Amino acid sequence: MRLEAEFTSEPFRGEGAPPEHALAARDAAVEAGLETDFGPLGTLARGEAKALLDAIPAIAKAALEGGATQVTLQVRHAGTDTADAAGPAGVARADVDQPADTGRAAGPAGVSRAGADEPAGVSTAAEPRGAGTAAEPTDADMASDPTSVRTPGATAGPRGTSTAGTPETVVELTDALARLIADLEREMGARLGELDRAGKQRAVRILRERGAFGLRKSVSSVADALGVTRFTVYNYLNREAD
């Protein structure tokens, strides 16, 4: 059985030379014979179950002796990424429907973050929901409100309602996040997945500042664009809020 361990260490210093404790943890994983990927937001190590589990104490010890104040670790079967089961408060969940008022959420699944505050100040924009499948917008619809379409059979009334008295279904454009990412890639002169370590860290920071993580499925989409896992993106958001 093959496992993978993803770990991050604090304090985190983005957009610059990696801290000594992160390098020490990576080196310990390499010395243990694990396949190691030193990513922009965390380090991923893969190997046979026994080899990986035996190496975890040495990895944590190396990070702490290298100056880390905290090591966050997630172990899973190789090839899985379940960090979107729960995310930081204010960050839209990736795959699970939830009301806008669910309140504070737990950190990444399977990860203990004792003493760490949940992120604050990350805008929340839950995707509006309604019955039925949205119709394609007409020219008149787009002229009056380019972000809204009406459900089939609804007659235009005052903004936000139909003449039948049923609230109009407002569908958030699904490409809003894609546009944010495309704009950022133009600014940075490369696709997010092609950026160097510091560039990817900067990209996540800018997307956070622009409210990208208030959109549903944002963590998953950004992680895919960067070529990293959701676990490390969630950890980054927690770090920024701490």
From TrEMBL:
Residues 177-238 form the Transcriptional regulator DauR-like HTH domain. Residues 1-23, 82-166 are annotated as: Disordered. InterPro entries: DauR-like_HTH (IPR039445), MTH1187/YkoF-like (IPR029756). Residues 82-93 have a biased composition (Low complexity). Transmembrane segments: none annotated. It comes from the Bacteria. It holds the Pfam family HTH_22. This is HTH domain-containing protein.
